[in-house]
Amino acid sequence: MLDERSERSTSTQAKVRSRFQPSARLVDRFRGVTSHSICSAGYIATMAVFDLINHYSLGSTSRRCFEAVYRCGNRDSAVTRLMARHSVLSNECGGYVIICRNPQDPDDVLPESIKMTSPNLRAGQPFTGVSVIEIGGTVAAAGATKTLADFGADVIKLEPMTGGEIRRLPPFPDDTPHVDRGAYHLALDSGKRSLAVDLSTLSGVQVLLDLSTGVDAVVMHLPPREARSLLTALATLGSEAPTSLVMTPHGLEGPLADNEEDDISIFARTNRMLRHSFTGEEPLRYAPYVPTLQWAATATAVLLAAIWGRRNDGERRSVEVAAVEALSGNVDSWYVPWTFNGVDPPRGPETRLGYPNGYLRCSDGLLAFSAGTAPFFSRLCDAIGQPQLATDPRFTDPLEKPKHYDEFMHYLKPYLAARTRYQAFTELQEYGVMCAPLLDIAEAIRDPQAVARGSFVEVEQQSGIGEITLAGPPFRLRDASPIEPWQIRSAPTFGQHMAELLTEAGYSSAEQIALFRAGVTS
After folding, report:
1. Residue 318 has pLDDT above 90, yes or no
2. Which stretch, 291-295, 346-350, 427-431, has highest mean pLDDT?
3. Would you say the CATH fold of 357-442 matches that of 127-262+288-342+492-522?
4. Quick check: helix, strand or coil at residue 74?
5. Nearest to residue 496, comparing CAs of 211, 194, 204, 154?
6. 293 forms bridges with which residues in the sheet?
């Protein structure tokens, strides 16, 4: 929970420790995810750090630990910059131990005092008591508030009268369109409350202002002109105005501020679409809304920081999160190599510079490698029964190695062809080789690690839909004291909570009927 900090003894020396093991024996939330997922995991870890701080604000001195499903050895700046400031955080986090551990490494274990016996760890509802208004009806806005709703926050969706983008996105059960049954809505709006409001009317804006009194933050994804108008209206609340977070493609200022963009065009502008192409060929794109949800993950982390900040120093924050900037700062861009080299690196399914680094075929599919440099290359040579290759000048000399790609593959490809992805993965992991099988969705859900941890959950939705499978908690809390268990709740029907929310805002039954008849609410 986020709450006012209780008084603490100034003699309490807080300890925040970060453990990032550079081992290759990694297990991601999905095995085989590509490098762009590292940054998302970094934001998850960042959010969990704030979560721990917020727990301590309740005055509990029990020791807690955090485990994010995190790639070992990654250098995501979102986390490393935060952890570099541990001396500042340590004044706020008394008694915490922050652990990003390697679940594949038998030597990297949790202390006995905080081990959990169940494989389905309790994640808790740390944001109970937080209230957020979400405006826009888009995938980006819904993605920015989903983690808060799933971890206990009261997220109020002020939806467009049409239902907005997210409710109209397929797929739908039985291919029958319905504003309450779209897959993106069911996944990203879990646990939220819904009220449709026409914010283009004065009465609709007044409803927003009445609901905003006492909430922690308002998140909006709107055209900049509309966003500026609502920000001006919220400012009339003075000191009672909630923290605001505006999501736009380019920010609220600059020559492109009013440009409309979509998932593809945002991705293209960041140079990351180029990153997903082979040299001389047209680029591939991510699956739909992957860039949007990475942008939303940035917004989530900043939103939590702003809420926590106000709870601690009373200062209201006004935040902008521009999609192009959020994605350009992600580790999947090539700005840093370009700064040093002045050219874009060659791009292909396999590189002949630091091989093996890319995708190679096993008997039943592809295995992703990142084992072209020490110590992983020598480990790979040992694993395939060719230890002499690790000291062969053909493969150790950076100038010679590109010339002898085919010679090395003469040893590696037969080894892989004789094994399935999981057989090769299991054997190579025993030697600490950086690799992972490429999994489709069904395989990811059935993956033994995902099953053991309960990484996916079944959620009972509205009548007529039944259970659907959704991703489970992106981070887990272990606590010595009882906490409310983590749970993911069903998504709301369109306008489901109209009467409930308007009543909470002080509207009488007659006023609610008047708003409804005027087409202001639904």
Report:
1. yes
2. 427-431
3. no
4. coil
5. 194
6. none
Please give the pLDDT value at position 468: 86
For residue 168, how many other CB atoms are within 10 A of its CB? 16
Domain 357-442 belongs to what architecture? 2-Layer Sandwich (3.30)
Q: Cβ of 249: how many Cβ atoms within 10 Å? A: 23
Task: Say what the pLDDT of residue 427 is.
Answer: 96
Contact 362, 289 (CB under 8 A): no
**Mean pLDDT, residues 34-50 taken together:** 41
Cβ 217 vs Cβ 293: under 8 Å: no
The domain ranges of the chain are 1-121, 127-262+288-342+492-522, 357-442
User: Which CA distances in Å does 8 have to 4, 312, 457?
Assistant: 12, 14, 39
CA distances from residue 426 to 38, 371, 436 in whole angstroms, order as listed:
22, 15, 9
What band does 188 get if pLDDT is binned at 50, 70 and 90?
very high
Within 8 A by CB and 6+ apart from 397, the residues are none
Distance separating alpha carbons of residues 356 and 350, to the nearest angstrom: 7
* Average pLDDT of the segment spanning 50-71: 36
Task: Taking the CA atoms of 261, 267, 271 and 274 in sequence, report the sign of the dihedral they define.
Answer: negative
Residue 281's pLDDT is what? Answer: 79
**Chain centre distance of CA 328:** 16
**345 in Cβ contact with 36 (< 8 Å):** no
pTM of the model: 0.72
> Contact at 8 Å (CB) between 152 and 54?
no
Q: What is the DSSP letter of 62?
A: S
Residue 166 near residue 189 (C-beta atoms within 8 A): yes
> Which pLDDT does position 61 carry in this prediction?
30
Query: Tokens in use for 374?
Result: 């020490």
Helix (H) or strand (E) segment spanning residue 13: none
pLDDT at residue 346 in the model? 64
Q: Which residues of 445-458 are buried (b: 16+ CB within 10 A; e: fewer)?
A: eebebbeebebbbe
Q: Supply the pLDDT for residue 432.
A: 95
* 127-262+288-342+492-522 is a CATH 3.40.190.10 domain: no
Q: What is the pLDDT of residues 361-394, one digit of tens each?
A: 999 999 999 999 889 999 999 999 999 999 999 9
Whole-angstrom distance, CA of residue 217 vs CA of residue 208: 12
Residue 41 gets which letter from DSSP?
H
Phi/psi of residue 155, nearest 5 degrees: -105, 120
Residues 6+ apart with CB under 8 A from 228: 252
Query: Which has more confidence, 271 or 115?
Result: 271
Those residues with Cβ within 8 angstroms of residue 423's Cβ, 6 or more apart along the chain or in another chain:
362
